[in-house]
Amino acid sequence: MGPQSEGVFSQFSLSEDDSKKYDVVITKFDNHFAPKRNVIHERAMFNKRDQLPDESAESFIRVLYEMAERCDFGAAKDDAIRDRLVVGISDKELSQRLQLKADLKLCDAVTDIRQAEVVKAQVSAQSSATKAIGEVKTKSGPKYKQYQKPKPQTASKQMSQPRKDEKCGKCGLVHRVKCPAKGVKCKKCQKVGHFARCCRSVGEVEDTTLDNEDFFFGVVQVNDAEQQQWYVRLPINNIDVDFKIDSGADVSLMTAKTYESLIDPPPLSQFTHNLQGVSGPLKAKGSFLARTTYNNQT
């Protein structure tokens, strides 16, 4: 502590035994240098402490623990820290959920707050990994921004992909992803690579042309770990639902199980259009309109 501390030490008038006890000497120095705490002021500062805009949950929790040490809460210290955490966190939705737990303990509150911050960080990372999402406009807007596939890099790719709104000569559909007829055997000529309705073999050809209201949806698959970056979580009727994005599909689909899990599922309207995928047609039970929000757009 330096030579000046020796003068202070001599003022303590300690006995020879006490002067050799570390705890006794440190306590004397603390009492000398630290002014008497104003508990009322310390508690006022504690009760006014909220999580700062750029402050992590972990930092906020640590600060409250440190401030509580100067407030002389005694046996009520854990309850005081718990209450300040619940009221002071910036995530007000989480704050409301915690307030509904009548038997909430400090350790449980700390765990929930930490986990909520981890989940938010993961969702933010997934959103950053997403390349392009069609701009969603409000219901009053007459048009929606269409998905546009990046321009092909090679001439061979350009030849294999039909132009926008042009029906493919092998499947008869308008698509912006892999042709669903690839690898499929024609039921008319038995050759591989096209559907029977597009077969050019000689003979009477049945008119199987699809009308203009057919929709292509690609492939329906489970959200697996390798596909995580292509999924976003959107609220539908107060339930978060995982949607695959940038699929090039003409429509958005969900399973009947997901639909039934919605809170007050909206009534289904009759869906008369044909749904065509890589594996073949799909029969829809119906359709409904829903409002969802992503990146502050509805």
Description:
It is a single chain. With 298 residues, this protein is mainly alpha-helical. The protein is built from nine helices and five strands. The strands form two sheets. Strands 1-4-5 form a three-stranded mixed β-sheet, with no helix packed on it. Strands 2-3 form a two-stranded antiparallel ribbon. Helix 4 packs antiparallel against helix 5 and helix 5 crosses helix 6. The longest helix has 24 residues. It is elongated and about 115 Å long. The two termini are 63 Å apart. About 6% of the residues have low confidence.
User: How does the helix and strand content classify structurally?
Assistant: mainly alpha
Largest sheet, if any? 3 strands, mixed
What would you report as the Rg, rounded to the nearest angstrom? 33 Å
Residue fraction in strands? 5-15%
- Give the topology string: H per helix, E per strand: HHHHHHHHEEEHEE
Fraction of helical residues: 25-40%
The unreliable regions are 154-160, 203-212
Shape assignment: elongated
Mean pLDDT: 79
Spatial order of strands in the largest sheet:
1-4-5
- Cα separation of the termini: 63 Å
Count every helix, treating DSSP H or I runs of 4 or more residues as helices: 9
**Strand segment tally:** 5
In short:
By secondary structure, the protein is mainly alpha-helical. The protein is built from 9 helices and 5 strands; from the N terminus they run ααααααααβββαββ. The strands form 2 sheets. A 3-stranded mixed β-sheet has the order 1-4-5, with no helix packed on it. Strands 2-3 form a two-stranded antiparallel ribbon.
